[in-house]
Specification:
seven-stranded parallel sheet, Rossmann fold, alpha/beta, globular
Length: 305
Amino acid sequence: MKLLVTGVSGLLSINFAQEMMGRHEIIGVDRGKLSHAPFRILKQDLLASNTADYLLDATHPQAVIHCAALADLEACEADPSLAQRLNTDVPQQLARACKVRDIPFVHISTDAVFDGENDEAYTEDDQPNPLGVYAQTKLDGERAVLAENPNALVARVNFYGWSLGGRRSLAEIFYNNLTNNKSMSGFTDVIFCPMLVNDTARLLMKMLKKKLCGIYHVVGPHAMSKYQFGVEIARKFSLRESEITPKSVTFSGLVAKRSNNLWLSTHKLSTDLGEDIPQFSTGLHEFYTQNQQGYPQKIRSYQQG
């Protein structure tokens, strides 16, 4: 299958390409960060006019995985207009163009669309309530995509893994700091459901092949605090968990508001796929093994310079 992957230098997209390139033809859309990738790269600014039509007509993909976004929460607060263009307008245009050409479209969204006030796990039927510009523009993107293309697949995600620059995921930040004997803090009052990005990629492909559509929560099956996540990383890599200081997000100094509880239910996903969602311990072990086998270095070798 020929797959067009946008924002291919991002954490999810580069790992998706790495996972799938042996079985599928990958065409990655990138603004110039990649020069040594083992798959085809199409250099294109997604904000340029008629980009959606150009990309699809130039590549004729059999499916589009739209990962590109402005995902920096602080940057979104600083430039709401750019956030809207990248997180709402671009996916809307791609969804429309895919609908016209009958091309399956997968849109990557976020767990951050919820305000964190729930006492139980959020389901896909729960009403979102975004707290900041990033979350609002991503929710607007979900709605725009499904309004243009009801057959689109929208995946709300939260993942970790090895990235192109080595600093894109919380797991890398914990690992890098603790490995270099640098202490850091972990939020005890921010709950999330982390999933190894490679598991995310594999699940997305299964969902695509099953022709699932609509909104799905594609996150790990276990909720934990950011602090606990850091401790789990430290223990797995035999690093000093005592170097991680428990901290409240209230005193973080961050501008963008963040939800305290992003515990999402994966019941719909596991039911419709007919299989269990990969366990956190399994993903963490793979993350550890990847490091042992030089996977991070392989990913980083694809970048410019």
